[in-house]
Amino acid sequence: YGAFIMIVAEANIHLGRPSSCYTAGLVSLTFGGVIVLPAISLIYLYRVLAIWNKKLIIKYILTFLWVIVWGTSISALFSQTAANLPTGGCTITHSETHSINRDGFIANAIYDGVVFLLTLVKLVSNCHQYKQFHSPVQTVLLRDGVLYFAVSVIIGITDIVFLEAVKSPVIASTVIPLHISLASVGHSGEFSCSVVIVR
Q1: pLDDT, averaged across the chain
Q2: How many other CB atoms are there within 10 angstroms of residue 64's CB atom?
Q3: Which helix (H) or strand (E) holds 93?
């Protein structure tokens, strides 16, 4: 639902109503950065905890990283704004003087990388343990999770490279809604996988 609200706000931004540009930008940034992305990361956390049988060290590592991701997401709000363009319309831009926005993407990429590695380790372990079976459900779910998390890591690294390579805040800021939209894909499937594994 947060992703839907963010997309509606983004549409309003692109329609460029001058009176509501700043409000739509604030709604988009708040729901996208403070609610949607951390919520997706939290689902990752529960999924990995389930496949690692709630191992305490995994719980502490992922919780610590999740708090950092959430904190940088909140901080990123203060480095971004929505403003009207001279040609009409408006856009969300990030400040060239703040590294907070970049730090948020780096924290998210590290978190996704750790989740990917933990899931990959469990997949390899399961494949070895259940090699006599053709298609155990848990191995299939782990394989799909590894593929999804690999895509998340690639998206995260691409975001960071894009933000560093493109110096124009207006152009570089297009990566923010793109990242949130791509991260939201498969969100429901990941949650259902978590439920299946926990049972």
Answers
A1: 68
A2: 10
A3: strand 90-94
CB atoms within 10 A of CB 191: 14
Buried b (16+ CB within 10 A) or exposed e, 40-60: bbebbbbbbbbbbeeeeebee
The most confident of the ranges 103-112, 156-165, 178-187 is 103-112
How far apart (Å, rounded) are the C-alpha atoms in residues 156 and 183?
9
Structural tokens at position 109: 């990429």
Domain 2-198 sits in CATH at 1.20.1070
Q: What is the pLDDT of residues 18-68, one digit of tens each?
A: 566 666 666 766 776 777 778 888 888 888 898 888 899 999 999 999 999
| The three-state (H, E, C) secondary structure of 165-198, written as one string | HCCCHHHHCCHHHHHHHHHHCCHHHHHHHHHHHH
Measured distance CA(186)–CA(94) in Å, rounded: 27
Q: Which residue has the tokens 């970049």?
A: 102
Please state, in angstroms and rounded to a whole number, the distance separating the CA atoms of residues 3 and 19.
Answer: 23
Residues 6+ apart with CB under 8 A from 103: 72, 75, 76
- pTM > 0.70: no
| Amino acid letter, 14 | H
